[in-house]
Amino acid sequence: MNPITLTLAHSPDPDDAFMWWPLGDTGAFTGAPREPSIDVGRFRFTSIPADIHELNVRAVEKGDLDITAVSMYAYAHAAERYMLLSCGSSMGDGYGPKFVALPEVEARFKNGGWRDDDVVAVPGERTSAFLALRLMHGRAFRFQVMRFDLIAQAVAEGRFAAGIVIHESQLTYESFGLRLLADLGAWWKDETGLPMPLGANVIRADTDARFGPGTAKAVAGLLKRSIEHALANRVQGLAVARASAVADHAHATTDPEQTDRFVRMYVNDLTLDLGGQGGRGLLGVEAFLMRAVDAGLLPAFGGVRVVSP
After folding, report:
1. Which has the minimum average pLDDT: 51-65, 157-171, 221-235, 242-256?
2. Which of 167, 229, 249, 251 is catalytic?
3. Residue 86 pairs with which residues in a beta bridge?
4. What does the pLDDT read at residue 248?
5. Annotated catalytic, 249?
6. Alpha-carbon gap, residue 28 to 46, rounded angstroms
């Protein structure tokens, strides 16, 4: 039987690299082939690291990637093209993206003194972090999209009134002299009691039609085994994650303890199974997206379709 080669697009942050290194890489995009560390059967994977904003836009506008990371907010815009995989999601249970600013701006923002000319740096219009800030703030504000790894520096330089930091910058923003205005994941848990859905992994809805019945389910099982293998071989996985992040973006942390902390935050039991913890993960997804629909920030869509092993 001929192998099936699938594109696997992901952000360059450590948790994605940690989850997927066991799958290997054909090297067709990266130029660095790696043999898989687990039995991938008839499947082969081509790794495509890219900024999450780029992946969101590509999923919504093209839908050409076989498997891709997306923001959970963007998934709703791409729900006709993609199905949500039950494994691989990033869920912040009481923590999440950080809304930050310089100390001199902190008091004004916390007291609701946003000016009309204040501009917030955000990692993408379809990111869950941006949606969460819009839900928390309750009204429109000026913003500018930037690569996620450049936001902390830009805010520290005074180019923006504030910014939303994601990925490792959630742990390193204080080193830029920035102060926390709000932890969006903590706000969401206070509001709902649920984990905040941030990133998701999705698979093309036509996968079975292209490769045969049961293919999507088989891929879901393989991805779950990849995460399980990574967790069982944590030292190796963290080394790969750190190297991948440093190679792919400007302000990636080189601190092994910070990499370990970040991976522990976003590779957990809800990553292995979105339906875990009595379904809290899936409830968090549905509540987040439905609240956006109710607020007029997201058009009504056909609901969440989940593929499980």
Report:
1. 242-256
2. 167
3. none
4. 53
5. no
6. 6
* Choice between 304 and 157, residue whose per-residue pLDDT is larger: 157
Instruction: Find the angle CA(271)-CA(277)-CA(281) to the nearest 5 degrees.
Output: 55
Return the number of other C-beta atoms located less than 10 Å from residue 268's C-beta.
20
Measuring CA to CA, how many Å separate 1 from each of 20, 43, 73? Answer: 24, 11, 38
The span from the CA of 133 to the CA of 160, in Å, is 16
Which residue intervals of 161-266 are DSSP H helices?
169-172, 184-192, 207-211, 215-232, 234-248, 256-266
State the pLDDT at residue 198. 92
Give me the numbers of helices (H) and strands (E) for the chain, helices first please.
Answer: 14, 12
Distances 221 to 29, 121, 178, 272 between C-alpha atoms, Å: 24, 37, 41, 10
Residue 241's pLDDT band, with cuts at 50, 70 and 90, is confident
The stretch 1-21 carries a mean pLDDT of 89
* pTM confidence score: 0.88
